Amino acid sequence: MKTIEIQEQQQVYDAIVVGSGAGGGMAGYVLAKAGLKVLMLEAGPFFDPAKDALQLRWPWESPRRGASTIRPFGDFDAAFGGWQLEGEPYSTVAGTDFQWFRARMLGGRTNHWGRISLRMGPDDFQPKDGVTDAWPITYDEVKPFYDKVDRMIGVYGTVEGLPNEPDGIFLKPPKPRLNELFIKQGAKKAGVTVIPGRGSVLTEALPGVEGRGTCFFCGQCGRSCKVYGDFSSSSCLVIPAMKTNNLKVVDNAMVREVLTNDEGLATGVSYVSTTDMKEYSVRGKMVILGASACESARLMLNSKSKAHPGGLGNSSGLVGRYLHDSTGSSMSGFLPQLLERKRYNEDGTGSVHIYSPWWLDNKKLDFPRGYHIEYGGGLHMPSYGFLNWVPEVNGMVPTKDGSKKDQGGYGASLKSDYRRFYGANVGMAGRGTALAHKDNYCEIDPNKVDKYGIPVLRFHYKWGREEVAQAKHMQETFKEIMHEMGAIVTSPTYGPETSYGLEAPGKIIHEGGTVRMGDDPKTSVLNKWNQSHDCKNLFVVDAGPFVQQGDKNLTWTILALSMRAAEHILEQRSKLNV
Amino acid sequence: MDRRESIKVLGLTAVGTGILLESCQTGTSEKETATANEIKKLPGVQEFEYERNNKLNSEQYFDEHEMATITVLADIIIPKDEYSESASKAGVPDFIEFMVKDIPDYKLPMRGGLKWLDVQCLKRYDKVFTDCDQQQQLAMVDEIAYPQKAKPEMQQGVAFFSLMRNLTASGFFTSEMGVKDIGYMGNRPGPWEGVPADVLKQYGFTEDV
Q1: Which of the residues A45, A100, A496, A498 has an alpha carbon 20 to 30 A from that of B49?
Q2: By C-alpha distance, which of A291, A308, A303 is closest to A514?
Q3: pLDDT over 70, % of chain A
Q4: Pairwise CA distance, residues A357 & A68, whole Å
């Protein structure tokens, strides 16, 4: 038999960071800036938005006109990857569902994310309703790091003083678009709060920050930004950290295992190069995982040794447990009053201009926690399928001369309908708290490996009564807002047969909780510094450590906690002996 | 960096692509339309995506007669009018040829639908669709273009026509001509100061919203 040659590197890095997204990027940045020698491993290729963004491309520059055949959010979207990757499968236990989105590229999913940057509130860290476990930390302990992230990366928004929706240090938000003015009006009548959005886009220069341009309002954050006008880990963390000469990135490096010594301490990692398929191992004084909640859990479970027989850092048996995504349900329609609207450029920012933070008192509701609402619609860049709804609805409103038209059609009359309806569409989507349950989890599939021979994940995830009740409430709310703004609903009516349009777990791409933090090593995987209870030089800085996320998109909290963990590492280096 | 500098940087960082010029000067880039025989590899497009695009482009799915039928149908759906040319002038038939290879689930409904259409026309007029005169063609289309009015025995035709209509509208309004026709004014650097004053006034909103 041929032997597999493993290329061993003798240099011992101060830290090895696995993954280059929000968590890995921030930890790598903080440590490299402080002078530590950091090696960052990324499973995908190098990606620099300045060169690689498909920003400002026209639809006809794609043979499929931006259709989502290859990339789930369309040809121009920045994410390399999706819910299915060639040669990297995962499985689900029968009767359960989980859709796992992976972006294989420098910066990971921060290249294409919606830039919606919300802080979790005091009640999210320390719930008063007793429904889920408390975090081992409070909002007040995290607040200084949220503040630092705001100053370092930038976020627009407005100071509102709302309960459990902490304000930040904000840049000026973009003004609402026309359809958003109607939404605000309709939502107000429906009793739903609407405030300016909160997005990590530089709507103005960020004091003290160099090398980043300000937003020029193309509305294409999802394609990543050539002038670094929004937050991507690639542009704002990793590439700047590389300039210190303290951080080295190895791309196309799929980590196989965290290596440990007889005492159970991490000594480095082994990886396979996805380009030459050769095996490598590298050494570090500590290992920091930021590979994404499920990928980091997979890596720990696959790193078995005498000291860690159930997987690295898994003496609690909880690695992979408490997996939770956000809930999601949506509705779309159009505003008849916007037919034949005047044309002008309303691209704005690629993050939300307005949103509805959770506004209700749960005492009067049949589900705990809540959701926020994101809104869309308007005169957006044409792309594949963007007018498909028009022949479905052109019979619903009278024509210009007041006569009735048959739905569908063709010819000059249909051609003018496309023009007439363009930009009148409106959509809303809820993003809510899904409860972290021990029984929703990922584990190693005993029967399957990926193309690198690495055992793959098997998921076990079911929505509970609470998530379905929340989706029902979303649909009722959306209907009311649509009604109050005079819109005509065009999306299907989602009833109990579809769990009220509740998306499958994983579809919202907010998964977390797989290596939750806590004070008790029996009921948690990490301590409150994102540090393994069982292996003191192992840290996890993605969304794995989340005990329970709120209805606040995770990224800002990942960044704050990763920064906090990295600063703790710097403070404790001598004591930790790392 | 302020916005003006951002825009300057954009021009400078887009090494070799002249992205800003390309993006802002519509009218010069008809040749860039990516349905034609050669597809340009843009920076940021992954190798496997580029290879797949070229592979699909090198294959031919529809035969000559099918392409001719698609062309006639596309121009019935989106004809020339006072604002713009017809669908075929915007390259829609080639786009549809590409899309059915890109989304193979469309192959059968399109091929079968075209055949269904010819069979219907043969029964009625003893001619395939493309050989029918315009009046006959429109009479046929009338039976499948209005889902709520269509007779039950026309439902397969309705399903085909809806797909054909969507592909045609996608292809037309994402072409350079179609983007201009629909009046999309963005995809260029600029300020965003909110809804223009005259539009606010038109809808009864005040300035301070």
Answers
A1: A100
A2: A291
A3: 99
A4: 30
**A538 pairs with which residues across the strands?**
A287
Which of B4, B72, B166, B187 should we substitute to test contact with A (largest number of A Cβ atoms within 10 Å)?
Answer: B187
pTM comes to 0.95
Residues A408 and A417 sit within 8 Å (Cβ to Cβ): no
User: Is pLDDT at A313 greater than 80 in this prediction?
Assistant: yes
Three-state DSSP class for residue A196: strand
Give the nearest partner residue to B169 out of A176, A348, A387, using CB atoms: A387
Let me know: does A214 contact A229? Beta carbons within 8 Å.
yes
Q: How far apart are CA A539 and CA A567, in angstroms?
A: 12
Longest Cα–Cα distance of chain B, Å, equals 70
Q: What DSSP state is assigned to residue A235?
A: I
Q: How confident is the model at residue B22 (pLDDT cuts 50, 70, 90)?
A: very low
Confidence of residue B14 (pLDDT cuts 50, 70, 90): very low
**The pLDDT value given to residue A573:** 86
Task: Tell me the three state secondary structure of residue A575.
Answer: helix
Question: How open is the CA angle A163-A165-A168, to the nearest 5 degrees?
Answer: 125
Type of residue at B126: D
- Chain A residues with CB under 8 Å of B185 CB are 343-345, 379
Searching chain B, which residue's CA lies closest to the CA of residue A422? B182
Q: Which pLDDT value is given to residue B169?
A: 98
Residue A105 has pLDDT above 60, yes or no: yes
Asked whether the predicted pLDDT for residue A166 surpasses 70, the reply is: yes
Q: Which whole-number Å values give the CA distances from A392 to A137, A290, A333, A338, in the listed order?
A: 51, 45, 11, 17
Alpha-carbon distance values, A284 to A120, A288, A400 (Å): 33, 10, 71
The mean per-residue pLDDT over the stretch B3-8 comes to 64
Mean pLDDT of A396-404: 91
Q: Quote the minimal CA–CA distance from A278 to chain B in Å.
A: 21
| A406 to B146: CB separation less than 8 angstroms, yes or no | yes
Interface probe for A, chosen from B31, B173, B201, B203 (most Cβ of A below 10 Å), is B173
Locate the chain A residue with the closest alpha carbon to B46.
A80
Query: pLDDT value at position B23?
Result: 43
Q: Can you tell me the distance from the alpha carbon of B153 to that of B207, in angstroms, rounded to the nearest whole number?
A: 55
Q: pLDDT tens digits for B76-131?
A: 999 999 999 999 999 999 999 999 999 999 999 999 999 999 999 999 999 999 99
What rounded mean pLDDT belongs to chain A? 97
Nearest to A458 by CA among A92, A151, A162: A92
User: What integer is the mean pLDDT of A2-6?
Assistant: 76
Buried b (16+ CB within 10 A) or exposed e, B7-43: bebbeebbeeeebbebbeebeeeeeebbbeeebeebe
What pLDDT is recorded for position A2?
67
- Chain A residues in contact with B76 by the CB 8 A cut-off are 410-411
Q: Smallest CA–CA separation between B114 and chain A, in Å?
A: 17
* A533 half-sphere exposure, CB direction, 13 A CA radius: 21
CB contact under 8 A, B44 and A216: no
The 3-state DSSP composition of chain A as helix, strand, coil percent (nearest 5) reads 25, 20, 55
Tell me the CA end-to-end span of chain B in Å, nearest whole number: 29
Cα separation, A425 vs A46, whole angstroms: 37
ipTM for the whole complex: 0.95
CB pairs under 8 A between A and B: 237
Q: What is the edge-to-edge ordering of all strands in the sheet holding A266-273?
A: A6-13, A279-284, A266-273, A253-260
| Cross-chain residue pair B174–A215, CB shorter than 8 Å | no
What is the Cα–Cα distance from B45 to A47, expressed in whole angstroms?
11
